[in-house]
Write a structure and sequence with these properties.
Low-confidence stretches of chain B: none
Low-confidence stretches of chain A: none
Strand content of chain A: over 45%
Oligomer: heterodimer
Structural class of chain B: mainly beta
Structural class of chain A: mainly beta
Number of strands of chain A: 11
Distance between the termini of chain B: 41 Å
């Protein structure tokens, strides 16, 4: 069964550094998403992306965050200057249409020290 | 603002017992999802419920939706250890896939 793949599985970075989290959505999916989960807490929506632009974003997704689909397969989340509170599990997801079920990747655990 | 509340947050039960997890949400929505998450793992889709009165069953899990009460339930029948995980409900805010998740119910099934 096709899967959403995310790399790396774990990223450790120092506060103030830039990080890029990478995702390869399922190939025939057109809608892409980033969610995050701070340890022990609920899953939170960050951003959705369709047709090479952001379709929705949450309050969490401020100017420090950006997303990009640099080629036909990858979908990336960049955090420009990481803060301690950015430490979380970041999940990429994709869906065929805007209201079909999401398929989540295995996540990238980001640790900011 | 859409709020999604689950209860209980933690549930410890014996194998063979039945129990129900509840998910309440605050505003009208056209879809409700149930996900399972094992520790350190991703979110596995269990059910999507689309209409009032919808009921779906998979093995020992059964989910239902009452859109008038804005309530979904996840019923566990004759629990087994393999069902130990955290279960999340999630509701979409709008016509898209901007989901608001509940706080999760951590289920531990003891032999």
């Amino acid at each position: 069964e096709p899967e959403v793949t995310q790399t790396p599985s774990h990223q450790v970075t120092q506060m103030g550094q830039e990080v890029i989290l990478r995702c390869v959505p399922i190939s025939n999916h057109l809608y892409f998403y980033w969610y995050r989960q701070i340890l022990g807490q609920k899953v939170e929506f960050l951003v959705s992306f369709y047709n090479n632009e952001i379709s929705e974003k949450s309050e969490i997704f401020d100017d420090q965050f950006s997303v990009e689909r640099p080629d036909g397969s990858n979908f990336t989340l960049k955090i420009r200057s990481t803060k301690l509170e950015d430490s979380a599990m970041y999940f990429c997801a994709s869906s065929v249409t805007h209201n079909s079920p999401l398929h989540f990747g295995n996540g990238t655990r980001l640790t900011v020290t | 603002e859409l709020k999604v509340e689950q209860n209980p947050l933690f549930l410890s039960m014996q194998e063979g017992k039945n129990y129900t997890i509840y998910c309440n949400y605050s505003t009208t929505s056209d879809r409700l999802y149930w996900y399972r998450q094992d520790p350190g793992k991703s979110l596995e889709s269990l059910f999507v419920l689309l209409s009032n009165g919808a009921v779906k069953q998979e093995g020992r899990l059964m989910a239902s939706l009452d859109t008038k009460a804005r309530l979904s339930t996840l019923h566990i029948t004759a629990a087994v250890h393999d069902l130990s995980a955290t279960y999340f409900c999630a509701v979409n805010n709008n016509a898209g896939n901007m989901l608001t998740f509940g706080g999760g119910t951590r289920l531990m099934v003891k032999p």
